[in-house]
Amino acid sequence: MMPLLIGLFGFSSAAVLGMAAYPPLMERIKAYLRQRAAEASLQMDDMFLTLSNHRLQLMYLGLPVGLALLFWLGTGFPAAAVLGLVIGIPIPKFLLKQMKSQRRKLFQAQLVDGLLIISSCLRAGLSMLQSFTIVAEEMPTPISQEFGLILKESRMGVSLDEAMIHFRQRLPSDDSNLFVTAVLVSRETGGDITAVFTRLVETLRERKKIKEKIKTLTFMAKLQGIVMGLLPLAFIYVTYTTSPSHFQFFLKDSTGQVMLLMVVVGQIIGFLLFLRFSRSPL
């Protein structure tokens, strides 16, 4: 416990003294935190989440600093703090991106059920806005929030066509594009809107089946990639716990430290590439 407190005090003191000795650095850090907090606030507003700018700035500052301290104390090498700092800087943005992606996936999963409700309401003789009201009241979040926002914009004087375009901009995807296009075209050309929604539901159902089939066919390849990525970490852990002398070269020799750093960077690059290429094209 005492080495941890000493390391924390030393790291914090060095950081404070460094920023105090060079005021322009402090101003740049503050400007960076304000910019990131403003961007994160806009993204959270799109997800109907609220968090103060002060807390967002603490998140963007605390995660990199905390990870740098963890790397330093975990390895015993001050140089590892730089690696932790570099890794920690993009983590808040990555977390927000993942939250937005998960919310979008949940919305896509609810869209077919929402369109079925709209189609049933239209068959019963309700208008488009009345059908949207039923979806906003009966469906869970996030689809109820999005349709509720369409209704709020309509009550504030925004035309339904513009509200639908805003909806497509908030949730860009092929399914949302098909839905918005169907509504805009049907309002412009007329015709049987109920038949349009029935065909749209069938199309989205078929797309969903194809996506699930692709996930099933590619599951084994993704699992193999995950196992291959974890094998080096498992090998290092088992070898270090059973025979720590094998890693003295990587921990004490400068050349070994550089090699270990290159291995860690390579693992991170491989993980990012795996995430990039494992995404479904649909």
Model description:
This protein is mainly alpha-helical. The protein has two domains: 1-89, no CATH class; 101-212, Receptor-associated Protein. The protein has helices spanning 2-21, 23-46, 53-75, 79-88, 91-123, 128-138, 143-155, 160-170, 174-189, 193-242, 248-252, 254-277. α5 (91-123) packs antiparallel against α10, α7 packs antiparallel against α8 (160-170) and α9 packs antiparallel against α10 (193-242). The radius of gyration is 26 Å and the shape is elongated. The two termini are 51 Å apart. The model is unreliable at 1-6 (pLDDT under 50).
CATH first level of the largest domain: which class? Mainly Alpha
In CATH, the topology of the largest domain is named: Receptor-associated Protein
What's the architecture of the largest domain, going by CATH?
Up-down Bundle
Report the count of strand segments.
0
Mean pLDDT: 78
Tell me the helix content. over 70%
Any idea how many domains?
2
Largest sheet: none
> What is the oligomeric state here?
single chain
In angstroms, what separates the terminal alpha carbons?
Answer: 51 Å
- The helix/strand class is mainly alpha
Low-confidence stretches: 1-6
**Rg, please?**
26 Å
Overall form: elongated
Number of helices: 12
Helix and strand element order: HHHHHHHHHHHH
- Tell me the fraction of residues in β-strands, as a range: under 5%
